[in-house]
Amino acid sequence: MATTPEDLKYSKTHEWVRVEGSVVTIGITDHAQAELGDITYLDLPEPGRVLQYDGQFGEVESVKAVSELFSPVSGTVTEINSEIVDHTEVVNEDPFGNGWLIKVELSDPSELTQLMTAEDYLKFAEAGAH
Amino acid sequence: MDHEPLIFERSRPGRVGSNLPECDVPRANAEDLLGKENLRGKLPLPEVSELDVVRHFTRLSHRNYSIDTGFYPLGSCTMKYNPRINERTAALPGFASLHPLQPAETAQGALELIYLLQQHLAGICGMYTTTLQPSAGAHGELLSMMMIHAYHADRGDSKRNVVVIPDSAHGTNPASAASCGFKVKGIPSNSRGCTDLDALRAALGDDTAALMLTNPNTVGLFESDIVEICRLVHEAGGLVYCDGANMNAMLGLTRPGDMGFDVMHFNLHKTFSTPHGGGGPGCGAVSVKQLLEPYLPVPTVVKDAESGAYSFDHNRPKSIGKIHSFYGAFLIAVRAYTYIRALGPEGLRAVGENAVINANYVRSQLQDSYDVAYNSPICMHEVVLTASRQKQQSGVRALDISKRLMDYGIHPPTNYFPLIVPEALMIEPTETESKQTIDEFIKVMKQIAIEAVERPELLKGAPHVTPVSRLDETLAVKSLDLRYEPLFEDEG
Amino acid sequence: MQRRGLTNNVAYISNTDTDRQEMLNAIGVDTFNELLAPIPPAIRWSGDLPVPPALDEHSLYRHLSSLASRNANAEQMLCFLGAGIYDHFRPAVVGALSSRGEFATAYTPYQPEMSQGMLQAIYEFQTMICGLTGMDLSNASMYDAATGLAEAALMAVHTTARDEVVVLNNIHPNYREVVKTYLRSASLKYVEVSPEEAVQSLNANTACVLTQSPDFFGCIQPLSDISTAVHAVGGLLVVESDPVALAMLKPPSQYDADVVVGEGQSLGNAMAFGGPLLGFFACKKKFVRSFPGRIVGGTVDLEGRRGYTMTLRTREQDIRREKATSNICTNQSLLALAATIYLSALGKNGLHRAADLSLQKAHYACSELCKLKGVSMIFPDRPFFKEFALRLPVIADVMNQQLLKHGIIGGLSLESYGPDLAYGWLLCVTETKTREDIDALVRAVDDILVKETC
To answer: With an 8 Å Cβ cutoff, is A61 touching chain C?
Structure first.
């Protein structure tokens, strides 16, 4: 498996969170993009939408699969990555960097403690792989 | 094989491909008849000769695999031989050139055929009566969900809004239930690949509208607990729906109605040998027990006890309504009726027997080269293999094995279904294939298993001999090309 | 009675008794019954299924011929029925090519490398439907026009997030009934109005307006005002239309229709007692992620060669299950293929000519019939294409009964379609009717009227 940055937090539904003050950046992991294959479409929420912890916030599609995106935090969407909407291959190529999906203003920072470390996520992802 | 251009690319201005009559009535100006504001300008269609048409579509046909071309072991699709007599009877002008709205007394033969086929199908599956109106299996599922909804509503039992569906089901099952506003509750399969009775018990309750079950299930296994399953659902107040996609396994051997199912759909284009037509048309006839009869779609075909005359009955107050422009796919019904009359009871049973023998033979011969899903010792009409071993050994996937089969001139099995079997290869030989053909297939599958170890790249790059190799499906989605644009370029 | 061994050979089953025995041996069982072990004995079927005994092929053909001979059909009689199913000319090439086993006995093209023929034909079909309707994209076809309309309504409901569907009452009554069934089962609102009431019936809950032109009575409907009005409230305009009429009529895109559906039976397919049929479904590009059914797209293979494949598959039921845009997993490929062959053979000029001949002959028939005493048009102010509604001085069912004796299948009696349609008779004339045929109809009607009204 490719890099799994140490400074991020991870959800069981394969999203990652980068914490920078009260605003967090959310994306999908390298493991998730590899499982999906070539991503062809992203359905992302409008800025201003209020997300619930573990609630669905969008969809990511490849040629033959659809995955729902679940928010690893509660809060309000402040920005979406408009660069990738027409260049979905960036999510495959750089999932932890330029392939980020949305930024969210946290409403309950304590939820971050429920997320996994990189090490735990790696174990989790490997156990789940067939 | 050479590239075949699009028919539009063969077009030349002024070329004509049909002989239409001269106008033999007094001509009026179209503008005066229709109003200038209602008339169109350009009509973007090709201009080709009749010979162009014949060559183009004949060449396209050469680029298409079919049952007539070769073995088609596509699991769950029952690609059996399509008898030619069916085509001959369906082409009789008394059937093909019949208008659906002509008076019933001028269509007695057609109505009698519908009436008889409805009876025969009900007898074959152990139900009370049948409607032929659904145009496809999924249409039959949708109709069944509508009738189950109407049944509960009619009894004032309006809280039943959940349909229970095993995780091995066809995707149409949950989609059809959801289309009717039902909530879908999935239940897992047990370690034998069948319905888990404890999970079923836990899922049932006073909100259960129905269970949708495929039997034999999509792993090709007969649900041995079926009587108990139906009893549990009925005890909870729900109805039991049988997805009849796999009816070929049961013909003359066992009947869903006797197992306890209340309603089922047939795929006449699978079990009863009508051609699949490259995706359709089909017919998803639905048979019901008496308790659902009042809800059947209108019109029904009835026979007058005294005169023996057939007619349509539109006046059925509890009917769910109409689901088709007219009465369903009549010419498909003609073919299925022809097939049933060609086989008779003995022949229908022979279908079930040979379908089961052929599939078990494939299983017995391939179980060393591949793993059999759930290690099942006996399957019904199809066997599900998994390429997990190959994937682990050399990274060769079910898809690669499928594509490699094409190089040997064989259509691949269904792959990646059912979803509960990783790297699934679902093989349904059908009863019409001979031991000889199946032996050839077995030989090729064994050869591919060896290639998977020794020359995995050969499989990953397959197919090598088809008119095109693997297609860029990502490009097809990301750069949509859904019509021939040059045809529209000079449009205003 | 205990069943003895395996059933005897039949022509469609290739195995011999020896084959079966060898296979049973290889499987490792002594008898076939051991393979039935998973089926509990209580539910095994041991008798004969309740169907009649088998017929040899010759007797079978005679039996089916005898059933067919009890149906009066358009090859032996003059058929002036329309109302959704039309007796248009079908060139011989259509049947000859579409019945080829390579097409007819193929499955859905899930394996594109082995299905390029059908995939390319469907791509051509989609292009031609776009050409006729003026829409940006067409799917690979639907069951029939009625379910096409219902699916269009459901798509409008999903994309607008509204729950009310306005249905004009001049749409074919069967289509309206099907739409009603679909909407009822999804707990959506069905609002039926006359074309005059349409604009005022629209509101912020309107997902779409369903319309038909030419309508059930054959009349061309002005839809521009409804189009403007429904778009003003944020709903969609859905138009059902006749593909042959569209050879002459302004494509619905020109009055800003969002979805165009229709019945493609006329395009080279048999009347077939109303089935199988060929629904078509075309729409604006903005619905590319929400339209129902299959679609074929062009792409390239590993060597860069052009090829075709089913695409946008993630909308469909086998991937999205209960969240699919529709439960449909079939299309009418073989009928779509026939339509593509038909539209190729007739081509730009031929289709226009077939349409114009239908138009001319229908108008000739209408004017000749209206010369008869007591016969008049029900909608004299509306332009019509190949169908027209007349009022007769006798009940149309009586007229039809009498016409059968003249070798004529008359028009549709409108008696049961509404109180204002009493004595109504809906006739259709296509290019398949000669002037002689039409004159024979007029003479027969005249004779019958003289007898019946005396």
So the answer is: yes
pLDDT the model gives residue B225: 97
Residues 6+ apart with CB under 8 A from C360: B23, B25, B26, B27, B28
Q: Out of 1.10.3720.10, 3.40.50.300, 3.30.565.10, 3.40.640.10, select the CATH number for domain B85-341.
A: 3.40.640.10
Burial B325-350 (b: 16+ CB within 10 A, else e): bbbbbbbbbbbbbbbbbbbbbebbbb
User: Does residue B2 sit at the A interface (CB-CB below 8 Å)?
Assistant: no
Q: In the prediction, which pLDDT does B490 show?
A: 66
B473 touches chain A (CB under 8 A): yes
Q: How far apart are CA B432 and CA B439, in angstroms?
A: 14
Residue B93 near chain C (CB below 8 Å) = yes
Question: To the nearest whole percent, how much of chain B has pLDDT over 90?
Answer: 95
pLDDT tens by residue, C417-442: 988 999 999 999 999 999 999 999 99
Strands A50-51 and B162-166: unpaired
Which among A66, A67, A68, A69 is the top mutation candidate for probing chain C, defined by the most C β-carbons within 10 Å of its own β-carbon? A66
Quick one: average pLDDT of B257-276?
A: 97
Domains and CATH numbers, chain A: 14-109 (2.40.50.100)
Within 8 A of A38 by CB-CB distance, chain B residues are 474
CB contact under 8 A, A130 and B388: yes
Answer whether A38 sits within 8 Å of B388, measured CB to CB: no
DSSP lists the bridge partners of residue A15 as A28
Summarised one tens digit per residue, pLDDT across range C13-35 is 999 999 999 999 999 999 999 99
Residue boundaries of the structural domains of chain C: 78-87+349-452, 92-340
Q: Hey, do C78-87+349-452 and C92-340 end up sharing a CATH topology, with the first three levels equal?
A: no
In this prediction the pTM is 0.95
B388, B422, B474 ranked by CB distance to A38: nearest = B474
Burial of C191 (0-12, 13-18, 19+ CB in 10 A): middle
ipTM exceeding 0.95, yes/no? yes
Residue of C nearest to A66 (CA): C314
d(CA B217, CA B252): 18
Chain B residues in contact with A88 by the CB 8 A cut-off are: 478
Q: Touching check for C110 and chain A: CB below 8 Å?
A: no
In the sheet that A50-51 helps form, which strands lie side by side, from edge to edge?
A9-10, A15-20, A23-28, A102-106, A75-80, A50-51
**Model pLDDT for residues C86-120, shown as the tens digit of each residue:** 999 999 999 999 999 999 999 999 999 999 999 99
Structure letter (DSSP) for residue B21 = P
Q: Do B422 and A130 touch (CB under 8 A)?
A: yes
Q: What is the pLDDT of residue C411?
A: 98
Name the residue in chain A with its Cα closest to that of B416: A64
Res B492: pLDDT: 41
Contact A65/C314, CB-based, under 8 Å? Answer: yes
Give the pLDDT band (50/70/90) at residue C162: very high
Which of the four CATH numbers 3.40.50.2000, 1.10.357.140, 3.40.640.10, 2.160.10.10 does domain C92-340 have? 3.40.640.10
The CA-based angle A120-A122-A126, given to 5 degrees, is 120
Q: Distance between CA A41 and CA C312 in Å, rounded?
A: 10
**pLDDT over 60 at C398, yes or no:** yes
Q: With bands split at pLDDT 50, 70 and 90, how would you rate the model's confidence at C3? A: very low
Q: Is B286 on the interface with C (CB under 8 A)?
A: no
Residue B46 with chain C: CB contacts under 8 Å: 343-344, 347-348
Does C319 contact A at CB distance below 8 Å? Answer: yes
Domain C78-87+349-452 has CATH 3.90.226.10: no
Structure-token pair, residue C75: 């090859």
Q: Does B474 touch chain A (CB under 8 A)?
A: yes
